[in-house]
Amino acid sequence: MNRLTRITSILIQLQSKKVVTAKEIANRFEISLRTVYRDIKTLEEAGVPIGSENGIGYFIVDGYSLPPIMITEEEANALIVSEKLISNQGDASLIKDFNSILIKIKSVLRDHEKENTSKLENRILSSSYKKEIFESNWLSIIQKAITNTKILEIVYHSIYKDEQTLRNIEPLGVYYTDKAWVMIAYCRLRKDMREFRLDRILKINLTSQTFGYQTDFTLSKYFSQLTEPS
């Protein structure tokens, strides 16, 4: 990768997150921290308003934006593969959201790139094809609740007790089990952490109520605590 391409890619990376560390940039492009600092300085000299906080990272000052970004054919192909994987993960809202963004991305491709992605769409198939998948349609609203720390009101069908219960929950994370999506949340009814399979949620409502953001919660920490001996 030449320096001009790398600097442009660094600018795009800076716009992809609120704050990006120099180490993240160095790891992505396999360059030294000294080179990162030099590239950041080049962007600043070109008029890009880059802010920085010691010990935290770099950020683009609010209000600055790039013109529409062109993507490479290889990047478009990676999205086609992702589409096949997502289409076999059972959540209709995720499929709808991804297809929407894929259409927008395809719209900026050149004609020959569009033809090539169309060819590829019929030549790639996920290994999960035809396996049993538990379908749901709630992932999109759950993701929104997680990022906005909104309480969800759900009607949940417990297979074990064969009962339906109305619950107010604080959603913290979601993961995929190879057959179904599962939400991890604090259940106010049970007053404890619970896991909810999305296909067993009968109704869902995004409330206006918020809950305290648990900054120390991560899925890796959650699963490690489950496997620790008691």
TrEMBL record:
<dbReference type="InterPro" id="IPR026881">
    <property type="entry name" value="WYL_dom"/>
</dbReference>
<keyword id="KW-0804">Transcription</keyword>
<keyword id="KW-0805">Transcription regulation</keyword>
<dbReference type="InterPro" id="IPR036390">
    <property type="entry name" value="WH_DNA-bd_sf"/>
</dbReference>
<protein>
    <submittedName>
        <fullName>YafY family protein</fullName>
    </submittedName>
</protein>
<dbReference type="Pfam" id="PF08279">
    <property type="entry name" value="HTH_11"/>
</dbReference>
<dbReference type="Pfam" id="PF13280">
    <property type="entry name" value="WYL"/>
</dbReference>
<feature type="domain" description="HTH deoR-type">
    <location>
        <begin position="3"/>
        <end position="58"/>
    </location>
</feature>
<dbReference type="InterPro" id="IPR013196">
    <property type="entry name" value="HTH_11"/>
</dbReference>
<dbReference type="InterPro" id="IPR036388">
    <property type="entry name" value="WH-like_DNA-bd_sf"/>
</dbReference>
<dbReference type="InterPro" id="IPR051534">
    <property type="entry name" value="CBASS_pafABC_assoc_protein"/>
</dbReference>
<dbReference type="InterPro" id="IPR001034">
    <property type="entry name" value="DeoR_HTH"/>
</dbReference>
